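User: quick one, sequence for these C-alpha cells?
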C-alpha cells in the first residue's frame, strides 16, 4: 500500500570512515520501510568533507551494504563508477553547481547573506561568550552590511562565507514518526548558520537539504544524534520553498554501560564483524531488533520476514544497548539454518585464514567438511570460531600441556594408567568398527570396572588427542580424527607424561 505521494527514503553516509554498524542499522530501517511501503530506497554519498573522505571508505561502505543484501534502487554503483537513477549523480562532490545555485537563490531573496568575519574574529567571540558562560551563537555582525561596508571588507581581501538567516523567535515543531511531537526553539540554534564556507565549500546542513529536496525524499529516517539538526533543516526546506519531508529519529545505539556507542567500548566497523564470521542473515536479523521489535515472541527472522513485519510505530524511543551475546546467539541460529553446501562454502575461507596464520597445517576438503557439518554447525556462534573448535583435526601434531592432561580428581599415575587402558581398548577396533556408537560402550565399561568417573577418563582422552578441554562430543571427535591418528596422539600424550 504505497503512501501518497511516493515513498522515497535514503541513506546518506559520509565516506569518512569504514561502514559503521549504526549506519548499517539506519540503512536497514530505511530499506525495510521502503520495501514495506513499495517505495524507493536511495543511497547518496555525502563526500563534501574532502579532507576526511576517501575512495577506500566509499568502497567499504558500498561493499558492506551489498554484503548485507540492502540493495538500493537509486545511487552510485560501485566505488568511483557511474550512478543509476533519475536524480544522478548521487555523490555530493558531483552536485556542487546545484548547491551554488541554491545559495544564490537564498542570497537573492535575502534569506542568506555574505559574512566576512574571519576565523580569528569568530574565535574571539566564542571565547568571550564562553567566559560569560553563554552558549555559542553568531552575533550577527554581518547580517545587515551596507554595500559600502561589504566593498570595504572585499578590499581588505576578505572572502565571504554565506550565512542563512535563522529567526530569533520561533518555535520549530514537527511530528517525529518515532518520537511524536518535537518542539525546538529557534533561539537555541546558535544564530545564523554558515551554509557555504569562505573557500566555497557547501556544508552538511545545506547540502543535505538541497539534495533531499532535489531527490524528492519523502521520509528522512536517521539516528537520534541528528535530532537537533532537524529544525535547521526544516528552516532551510521552507526557505528553499520545498515541502518538508517527514522525519523519524532512530534510538541511539549504546555500549553495554549505556553510554553512547563508541569504538573504544564496542566493535563498530561492519567489516570486522564480517571478518569474525558473522553471517549476513544473523547481522541483518540482529540489527533489525536493535531498537525495533515485532511485538511478538518471534526473534529469528529473515530479511523478507522482517520486511513483512516492519513498522516504524514499533521502533523504540529509548537507547538500544548493543548486546554481543545476543548477536552471537542469533548468528548461531542462522549458521544452523544454512544448507550444508552453503555452510561449507562460507566456512572454507575461515580455514584459509587459519592456514595463513599457521594455526593449521592443511585445508580440509569439502567432503571432510560436509561430514563434519552435523557436529560443528550447531556449535559455531561465528564461522571464525571454527579454528578454535576443530583446528586440531588439521594439524600434524597437537601441542599437549602435560599438566592439562591430568584431570582434577586424578594424578599423573592414574592418568597414565587411564590413557594406556583406553588406548588398548580403542586399538581393539579396526577401521570398520571405528564409529561413535561402537567406541563409546567399551570406554564406559572400562571406567566402570576401574571405578573411575567416565567424565575424568573422557577428559584425559580429549586433551590427549585434541590438546583442548572443550571440543565437539568426544566420540564424534575420535571418528573425525580416525583410528591411526587417535592412537598416535594417545601414544604421544603418554610419552609427554614420561611413560
Ligand atoms: N552524512 C550524514 C551522516 O553520515 C547524513 C545524515 C542524514 O541522514 O541526514 O551522518
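Assistant:
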Amino acid at each position: 500500500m504505497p503512501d501518497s505521494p511516493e515513498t522515497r527514503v535514503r541513506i546518506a553516509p559520509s565516506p569518512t570512515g569504514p561502514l559503521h554498524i549504526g549506519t548499517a542499522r539506519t540503512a536497514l530501517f530505511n530499506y525495510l520501510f521502503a520495501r514495506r511501503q513499495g517505495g524507493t530506497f536511495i543511497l547518496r554519498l555525502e563526500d563534501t568533507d574532502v579532507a576526511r573522505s576517501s575512495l577506500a571508505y566509499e568502497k567499504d561502505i558500498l561493499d558492506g551494504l551489498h554484503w548485507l543484501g540492502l540493495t538500493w534502487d537509486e545511487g552510485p554503483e560501485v566505488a568511483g563508477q557511474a550512478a543509476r537513477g533519475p536524480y544522478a549523480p548521487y555523490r555530493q562532490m558531483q552536485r556542487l553547481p546545484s548547491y551554488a545555485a541554491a545559495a544564490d537563490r537564498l542570497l537573492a531573496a535575502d534569506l542568506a547573506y555574505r559574512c566576512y568575519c574571519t576565523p580569528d574574529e569568530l574565535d574571539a567571540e566564542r571565547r568571550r561568550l564562553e567566559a560569560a558562560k553563554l552558549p555559542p551563537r553568531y552575533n550577527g555582525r554581518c547580517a545587515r552590511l551596507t554595500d559600502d561596508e561589504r566593498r570595504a571588507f572585499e578590499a581588505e581581501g576578505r572572502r565571504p562565507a554565506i550565512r542563512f538567516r535563522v529567526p530569533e523567535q520561533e518555535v520549530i515543531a514537527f511530528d517525529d514518526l518515532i518520537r511524536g511531537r518535537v518542539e525546538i526553539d529557534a533561539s537555541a540554534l546558535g544564530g545564523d548558520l554558515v551554509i557555504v564556507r569562505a573557500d566555497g565549500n557547501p556544508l552538511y546542513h545545506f547540502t543535505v537539504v538541497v539534495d533531499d529536496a532535489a531527490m524528492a525524499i519523502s521520509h528522512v529516517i536517521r539516528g537520534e544524534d541528528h535530532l537537533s539538526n532537524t529544525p535547521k533543516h526544516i528552516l532551510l526546506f521552507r526557505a528553499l520553498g520545498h515541502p518538508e519531508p517527514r522525519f523519524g529519529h532512530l534510538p541511539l545505539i549504546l555500549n553495554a554501560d549505556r553510554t553512547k556507542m563508541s569504538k573504544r567500548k564496542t566493535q563498530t566497523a561492519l567489516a570486522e564483524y564480517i571478518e569474525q564470521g558473522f553471517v549476513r542473515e544473523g547481522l541483518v536479523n540482529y540489527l533489525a531488533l536493535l531498537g525495533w521489535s515485532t511485538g511478538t515472541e518471534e526473534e529469528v527472522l529473515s530479511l523478507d520476514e522482517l520486511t513483512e513485519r516492519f513498522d516504524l510505530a514499533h521502533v523504540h524511543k529509548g537507547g538500544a544497548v548493543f548486546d554481543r551475546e545476543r548477536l552471537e546467539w542469533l548468528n548461531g541460529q542462522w549458521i544452523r539454518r544454512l544448507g550444508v553446501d552453503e555452510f561449507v562454502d562460507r566456512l572454507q575461507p575461515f580455514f584459509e585464514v587459519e592456514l595463513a596464520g599457521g594455526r593449521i597445517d592443511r585445508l580440509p576438503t569439502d567432503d571432510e567438511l560436509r561430514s563434519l557439518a552435523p557436529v560443528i554447525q550447531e556449535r559455531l556462534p561465528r564461522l571464525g570460531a571454527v579454528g578454535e573448535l576443530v583446528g586440531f583435526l588439521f594439524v600434524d601434531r597437537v601441542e599437549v600441556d602435560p599438566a592439562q592432561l591430568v584431570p582434577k580428581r586424578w594424578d599423573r599415575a592414574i592418568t597414565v594408567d587411564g590413557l594406556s587402558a583406553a588406548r588398548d581398548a580403542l586399538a581393539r577396533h579396526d577401521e570398520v568398527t571405528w564409529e561413535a556408537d561402537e567406541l563409546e560402550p567399551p570406554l564406559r565399561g572400562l571406567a566402570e570396572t576401574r571405578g573411575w568417573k567416565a567424565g575424568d577418563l573422557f577428559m584425559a582422552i580429549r586433551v590427549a588427542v585434541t590438546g583442548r578441554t572443550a571440543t565437539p562430543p568426544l566420540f564424534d571427535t575420535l571418528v573425525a580424527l580416525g583410528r591411526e591418528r587417535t592412537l598416535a596422539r594417545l601414544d604421544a600424550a603418554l610419552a609427554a607424561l614420561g611413560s
